[in-house]
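Example record

The entry below shows one chain as it appears in the dataset: sequence first, then structure tokens.
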Amino acid sequence: CTDDGSYGRKALVTEPLKELCETWKPDLVVAIGPPIMMKFCTATT
């Protein structure tokens, strides 16, 4: 997903991550990006 919708769906990375975590609990999540994005990915998982 991209924030402008140019590739995949238009969304913040935490939206599809949250949806995935509701149906399946991953053992490991790898997030690469700015610190604020990684902070919210950590909070989501």
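Notes for this example: Residues 30 and 38 are 9 Å apart (CA to CA). Residues 1-45 form one domain.
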